[in-house]
Design brief:
heterodimer; A: alpha+beta; DNA polymerase, domain 1; B: Enolase-like, domain 1; 3 domains; five-stranded antiparallel sheet; four-stranded antiparallel sheet
Chain lengths: 158, 285
């Protein structure tokens, strides 16, 4: 099955084995290895990408559903050789341990900050509630999202 | 683990085209809303997906007294809608925020949840106490209460869900929802939704639905009637919660025993009613 996708701003034509193949498998095959496979059942959030502007578990998106969609993966966050303010803040705060949950966590944070530039801690916790971190680093990740939000409000890095 | 045989995607533009495609392909075809359950169930006999995204059923609007939600509206869209927030003091919004994760709620549709009708669904008891009706299509349009739709499920094929209607609620009507889960993310062992208002310290229009028993949610009409016109105090809530616990049809499954579910029914019903009555007390064990 032929799919037309816009991945990180670039229109692509990709082939899915069948209409039931998941977006996760397709993206990884196309080289977007920042999209991580964890549980494959919508529980862990490691595979999160933006689908038409909203963060979703790509392991739950069927090829039939993705056709024609605009996809942003973690590879699409850095611009002109500069990391996204969220990525910078994750580095500054030591919010990355093993790193496996980080791409998905970043996509959930982008979804939040796009709609709510000044979230409180509760709203951040709710926004990343579908992203499991097995290094138990939530405190640093929450702080990183707060710092990125502040920098984005103050400085227009994005 | 996937729909290996799904080779064909049909993209109908009208309800009738969607319905006819289903008639043509029968059990080998499934309607595709958010696709969450299809991705998880990975049915091996499905060859055709009927994508409902072209039907224009992603909307939330007020018409007359009714709040109307198109079947392909995502849970997130409902949570973020000012119309849903304004209905029954935001009861449905508050329940939806407790379902799965934002990542899943950005995909999952209200119609998909009702079509699949998992017995542990948190959405179904909430919609039952809101007296939801469904606009269905099976060659022609018809309206059915959600309660009847669930009761008739499996008897004569699954009609296509087009819209969910929620009747307008009088001012002062409040809802409360409680579920008990092993982890915040897990499927509940039991859930309870209650709705009602208190006028001159007395209950009016009380509705109670309990799900995950482990069967599909049902209304507890005998208990609802028992509370009608009674004082909104801790004593009445305690007896209503005990009556619910006696009346509920519970079974053992791998998540919880029947006995445990009875205890949960009593405790969670009490919590919901106390919340609606804005009483800080707990019932005695």
């Amino acid at each position: 099955m032929k799919l037309s996708l816009t991945i990180n701003g670039v229109p692509r034509s990709v082939t899915a084995d069948d209409a039931g193949e998941t977006l996760l498998t397709i993206l990884r095959r196309e080289g977007y290895s920042g999209v991580k496979k964890g549980c494959g059942a919508g529980d862990c959030g490691a595979c999160a990408v933006l689908l038409n502007g909203r963060a979703v578990n790509s392991c739950l998106v069927l090829a039939a559903k993705a056709d024609g969609a605009e996809i942003i993966t973690v590879e699409g966050l850095a611009m002109g050789g500069r990391l996204h303010p969220l990525q910078e803040a994750f580095l500054d705060e030591g919010a990355v341990q093993c790193g496996y949950c980080t791409p998905g966590m970043l996509m959930s944070a982008i979804d939040l900050l796009t709609r709510n530039p000044d979230p409180n801690e509760h709203e951040i916790r709710e926004a990343i509630s579908g992203n499991l971190c097995r290094c138990t680093g939530y405190a640093k990740q929450i702080r990183a999202i707060q710092i990125a939000a502040k920098r984005m409000r103050d400085g227009g890095d994005d | 683990m996937r729909l290996r045989l799904a080779r064909t995607v049909v993209r109908p533009a009208t309800l009738d085209e969607a319905w006819r495609a289903k008639g043509e392909h029968g059990d080998a075809a499934r309607f595709l809303g958010g696709g969450v359950d299809l991705a998880l169930l990975a049915l091996s006999d499905v060859t055709t997906l009927i994508d409902l995204s072209g039907l224009g059923l992603s909307y939330i609007r007020i018409q007359g007294e009714h709040l109307r939600l198109g079947a392909t509206t995502t849970m997130t869209a409902a949570i973020e809608s000012p119309l849903v927030a304004a209905h029954a003091q935001g009861f449905l919004r508050d329940v939806l925020r407790k379902v799965a994760s934002p990542l899943q709620r950005n995909l999952a549709t209200l119609g998909g949840t009702l079509a699949r009708a998992h017995p542990w669904s948190d959405v179904i008891p909430a919609l039952l106490v809101l007296d939801a009706e469904l606009l269905l299509y099976d060659g022609s349009e018809k309206t059915l209460t959600l309660e009847r739709f669930l009761g008739e499920r499996g008897k004569s094929g699954v009609p296509l869900i087009a819209e969910i209607h929620l009747p307008g609620m009088p001012e002062g009507v409040r809802g409360a929802f409680a579920k008990f889960t092993r982890t915040a993310f897990d499927v509940g062992m039991l859930n309870v939704a209650c709705l009602g208002a208190i006028e001159k310290q007395k209950w009016t229009g009380v509705r109670i639905a309990i799900g995950g028993t482990p069967a599909l949610a049902t209304r507890l009409r005998a208990v609802e009637e028992m509370l009608e016109g009674k004082p909104a105090d801790v004593d009445q809530i305690t007896s209503a919660a005990s009556a619910a616990s006696d009346a509920i049809d519970v079974r053992d499954d791998r998540r919880a025993s029947a006995e445990y579910r009875r205890t949960l029914t009593r405790e969670l019903t009490a919590r919901c009613l106390l919340e609606i009555a804005q009483l800080p007390e707990r019932i005695s064990p």
